[in-house]
Amino acid sequence: xxxxxxxxxxxxxxxxxxxxxxxxxxxxxxxxxxxxxxxxxxxxxxxxxxxxxxxxxxxxxxxxxxxxxxxxxxxxxxxxxxxxxxxxxxxxxxxxxxxxxxxxxxxxxxxxxxxxxxxxxxxxxxxxxxxxxxxxxxxxxxxxxxxxxxxxxxxxxxxxxxxxxxxxxxxxxxxxxxxxxxxxxxxxxxxxxxxxxxxxxxxxxxxxxxxxxxxxxxxxxxxxxxxxxxxxxxxxxxxxxxxxxxxxxxxxxxxxxxxxxxxxxxxxxxxxxxxxxxxxxxxxxxxxxxxxxxxxxxxxxxxxxxxxxxxxxxxxxxxxxxxxxxxxxxxxxxxxxxxxxxxxxxxxxxxxxxxxxxxxxxxxxxxxxxxxxxxxxxxxxxxxxxxxxxxxxxxxxxxxxxxxxxxxxxxxxxxxxxxxxxxxxxxxxxxxxxxxxxxxxxxxxxxxxxxxxxxxxxxxxxxxxxxxxxxxxxxxxxxxxxxxxxxxxxxxxxxxxxxxxxxxxxxxxxxxxxxxxxxxxxxxxxxxxxxxxxxxxxxxxxxxxxxxxxxxxxxxxxxxxxxxxxxxxxxxxxxxxxxxxxxxxxxxxxxxxxxxxxxxxxxxxxxxxxxxxxxxxxxxxxxxxxxxxxxxxxxxxxxxxxxxxxxxxxxxxxxxxxxxxxxxxxxxxxxxxxxxxxxxxxxxxxxxxxxxxxxxxxxxxxxxxxxxxxxxxxxxxxxxxxxxxxxxxxxxxxxxxxxxxxxxxxxxxxxxxxxxxxxxxxxxxxxxxxxxxxxxxxxxxxxxxxxxxxxxxxxxxxxxxxxxxxxxxxxxxxxxxxxxxxxxxxxxxxxxxxxxxxxxxxxxxxxxxxxxxxxxxxxxxxxxxxxxxxxxxxxxxxxxxxxxxxxxxxxxxxxxxxxxxxxxxxxxxxxxxxxxxxxxxxxxxxxxxxxxxxxxxxxxxxxxxxxxxxxxxxxxxxxxxxxxxxxxxxxxxxxxxxxxxxxxxxxxxxxxxxxxxxxxxxxxx
Amino acid sequence: xxxxxxxxxxxxxxxxxxxxxxxxxxxxxxxxxxxxxxxxxxxxxxxxxxxxxxxxxxxxxxxxxxxxxxxxxxxxxxxxxxxxxxxxxxxxxxxxxxxxxxxxxxxxxxxxxxxxxxxxxxxxxxxxxxxxxxxxxxxxxxxxxxxxxxxxxxxxxxxxxxxxxxxxxxxxxxxxxxxxxxxxxxxxxxxxxxxxxxxxxxxxxxxxxxxxxxxxxxxxxxxxxxxxxxxxxxxxxxxxxxxxxxxxxxx
Amino acid sequence: xxxxxxxxxxxxxxxxxxxxxxxxxxxxxxxxxxxxxxxxxxxxxxxxxxxxxxxxxxxxxxxxxxxxxxxxxxxxxxxxxxxxxxxxxxxxxxxxxxxxxxxxxxxxxxxxxxxxxxxxxxxxxxxxxxxxxxxxxxxxxxxxxxxxxxxxxxxxxxxxxxxxxxxxxxxxxxxxxxxxxxxxxxxxxxxxxxxxxxxxxxxxxxxxxxxxxxxxxxxxxxxxxxxxxxxxxxxxxxxxxxxxxxxxxxxxxxxxxxxxxxxxxxxxxxxxxxxxxxxx
Lengths: 1005, 251, 280
What we know:
The structure holds 3 protein chains of 3 kinds. Chain A is α+β, with helices and mostly antiparallel strands. In chain A, the strands form 11 sheets. In chain A, strands 18, 19, 20, 21, 24 and 25 form a 6-stranded mixed sheet that branches. In chain A, strand 24 and strand 25 (637-654) form a beta hairpin. Chain A is elongated, with a radius of gyration of 36 Å. Chain B is an alpha+beta fold. Chain B starts with 7 loop residues before the first helix and ends with a helix. The model of chain B has no long low-confidence stretch (mean pLDDT 87). In chain C, the strands form 4 sheets. In chain C, strands 1, 2, 3 and 4 form a 4-stranded mixed sheet that branches. A 4-stranded antiparallel sheet of chain C has the order 10-9-11-12, sandwiched between helices. Helix content of chain C is 31%, strand content 26%. By secondary structure, chain C is an alpha+beta fold. Chain C contains 6 helices and 14 strands. Chain C has one domain (18-266): GHMP Kinase, N-terminal domain (Ribosomal Protein S5, domain 2, 2-Layer Sandwich), CATH 3.30.230.70. The interface between A and B is large, with 54 and 51 residues. Chain B: It comes from Trichoglossum hirsutum. Chain B: Residues 22-151, 155-225 form the Exoribonuclease phosphorolytic domain. Chain B: It is found in: Cytoplasm; Nucleus, Nucleolus. Chain B: Belongs to the RNase PH family. Chain B: GO terms for molecular function: RNA binding.
């Protein structure tokens, strides 16, 4: 009996119901048998404009049928017919042809199908589409995009629903064989159908050939046996006009195999057991260290271990063995024949693996074929000969001691999302591409994939099992649209682990009850005055950046009767308000530091303290912690006194205001004279420091001008250094050094100090070599003094910026300074390399740094002002404190830089600027350019230079990259180049990025 | 993973090869269980339901009953009916809600006042599920009640209607779909509609998915139209059966 | 079995007669809600609680969200303990469909470590006094409570999870994707008269009901006309549009009440002091 009323009416065959039975296994391993009905029909058109038969019974959608008008234009179907009536011909098919590609052809040669010069009039069979979707969602999405665009006349023919082309799976037949047979059946039907159509039309039209494309030899053979036109992709392309160019686009690796199986390594190696790792480390065969990934090459990691001077290199996914940036790992050194030089090539994940399927139902290879190819190429270059360096020891990860996974911010890879119009209720697996390039893609299962597109998303990694190429995680929340200020700001705070959430209520109880009305008590007998010196009559002032609200420090200087000077540095007395171990203290120590972004400040202490009660604002009385020296006119310190005090600042200057005041000779008031004295002394202090070997380093610093109303960036300018900047700096250094000595004297085991290690000579090797080869300059690194002196000699008469460039690069060779507890190092290790001081601490910014709060407490105890809290007596406690604030400090710096980077990007948005830049680094397939005007640094890849990518020879010994072919350029290290800066939205990621294009290299006039 | 419902727009074909306005195959039989007062077997595609009716029978409970007959419904969903074998508890609220709906719908369409202080027991056995379960149950119950000879104002017939649009997009090109199968129900928004008689009077309307209010009208229209088609089919079955009965009596 | 006393014949004919004359016995117009009072605890109580639990094995990346309803004899002698009545089934199913299935609460945001730990959010609905409009009132109560609720913050370090106390860290609100509101329509006199928010007396007399859950964005989240008198399809569509305007009004009402509550609990000045993110 039939029930399909509408179709049966005009259908002599009646409804044909078949059912499709298949077995699938679920994620949890259950096997399900699925039975589905199939309604076979005859009104599925061939979509050829040659055919009038199909046109007469083309389907209608709800709107078309809703009108039910008999006059409905019968020859304008809802889904228009696309296949041309005069398709292009080739040598082999002079009558024109329609292509019917098999799945393997699409998998290998999707790029070909996107070409504008060929591959028109393509029939995509339902069977093929389904298979393609199984194999690669990104490819499926590309194909659907091609079909939808209409330009290339692609038609999806639902062969499994058409009565004549439906093929039932025979018992014992594999699904692949059935699909092959279905493809052949459809090709055959099309051929016969078009013959009829052409005959029916009665016109003298030549009937186009239907050409099956397949790389499966068996399928080709069977097709030919059935007298169908069939050829391999390679053979077909060979017959096309631009064959040579097109042939290159066929994916070689997949070419050789005809079948539908994947190959590759299946599992990551298993981790060693705990005991095996312990034994290995004791025996010295295994090493533990932190895992770091190269920002330029995601397949190259490094692990610094005590046993080796240079970091061990970990190459490739398999050796990295599921270690993620920051994990504490155990590694095993590989045999010497596998050692290699650090990479000279940029490898980016998004480029290599863009066609991967996020849904990993099938077993997958750990290393994709593309990756393998890239690695092999790399290895070939470095085998035997060494280019640009000596082979370095390599290692593989054999275990993870501690995962350092945090929450990651990123965005959903658009191509991994199945863009179906379904309810969205169904869970999909998609890739999340983290903002941090060193973190691998993360597989996320979510029901909201479509909503998450174009958003900044926060995710967590849950696990990384041996059988999964990528870690698996879950969605935490969405931060908002990509590129909006809110989302990007929150993203960078999260990425750098900045605690930006509000202070908990418990902190409220720790604040003074008077709130903003708090005042220094008028009565000197009040407990607050105990032990304080009354310095209110001193002419104190502060000098800070403009609009500074959290004023940590103020200064004064006055002549003494003996011809010496009294100089005072007064620091906000934060520890008067922040008592040890209460809620506010633990919150502040957790935050570690205030974080400064371009338009925002993430406070370490509540605003009430930071910008009001502690801040040494002008014209009001404030508690302070003062360091007062007696100095000779040559700036030699005669005596130093530390005391808690009460001060009243007379003025809050900005650097510029102070400078103007000093320069204005008409100003003769005592305050101005005091500031002039300070400047005079600071210059002498600075000279002494420089003579002792302090370094003058440079980092690219720019400032973003922001429009007040909208907080939109307006302009970018390079920061200027005024004398008053270094005035403040010198006295702060002096205060810090003095305090460091004092608290170390009082607490030799537990003083909170700051050190800057001397960089190992190997850090400078590369730069030394570069300078020697390119400029014949010598960089001496045996001491900070030698380094400072030799840096001064690195000048290029024609290129004033050259020296700054070298200083920037030298800065990157340095170690980073760190807080430490005095008892954990020997005295010789206390040294601050950059400042050339044998001891140092941070004392002068307690409002924004927790280390200073600790130093304040220790100093207060050292001068017997109060008892030291027991927690600051404990070495272990201080050590963990240092560890946290070191990390927070680093993160704060990076967040600040990222914020500037974002705003510079926004300021440049939509603009195209040509600027001078300098080549900082040369790779074999690209180079890094630094643009001082905007403080930006970006990669220029070979393939960005011209299309097609120019040939290049890389001379690693001389740091020269020569391109030939489509564009001839010579890129030389340190040379000035002209670049065009524009912003660009990356298609695959939706991120806006600064893009540098090379306008001209070398020889700028 | 085969294609999903997004492929509809390529050629206006649904996952099983149907067009937007086509019902699945409906197969129905009456008087399948000789022991019951009324019985039916109904297939809508791969959804298969048996229904038996007992009554009207006297209420056993002491203390009388109400002035109208009480309609009671029980649904038994076989463990093997779905893709995964599931054991349903008696207190499954989803099933309880379906029972309530069916009972409530027929209480209004049956002439219950003719049978004071009695019950009409409808028992449904679900043998196989592939979407439109509530609709299939309502249709099977209508046939079984007719078989039991209980007077009613008209047929209650039901079917489902969906939409190819997602809840978030209010896109005008979305097509309404008639009679969803299990897979479509999982992916698309849909509603179950039951009408009383050949008009547009809606007795049951259940929707459990989110959808833009603007899409409702076309879905409802397609559903009501589907109900009319179902009614024709059921009517055919009843008349064929009636003719057979009459023929056998004449003989 | 204690039952709600049925209406007397007099009452019955009086109410129906009045309806026929376009009059409701409490003087409201047909499409008016009774006064809505929301002070986080009254008539219907909805309480939200959260605990850390292990996620379901088939939903590894999701948290757990359950709504339980309890109709206790406190509210009406017709309710019994421990017996599942049709009314209770309909109530809990409607809330389930309108709030849980429609994805009002983003359960993915409740995941802490997939497959191991997640938040389990439980909404308990207790009815205190019953005079009709059970579903509507319960739905409003749950939605308001979900918006009002704050769960403790958690942090994850490597594979360790720390749940912070309310004092330690500011607790976080739940991530609600939309706010569905249920509106019940009652049909009388064979469907000629349609009322909103029927009282108990009216409910006893009605021929059928239609519950529509809709959010203020115009998305219908569930429709339930479970039998009863057959109604013209067009009338039903009209009801959906009326429900939308009602839902928008109620949503605004809830958010204004929530703001009031927030203001009452935290004086504005102190709140500002606690912000860590400040303009430069």
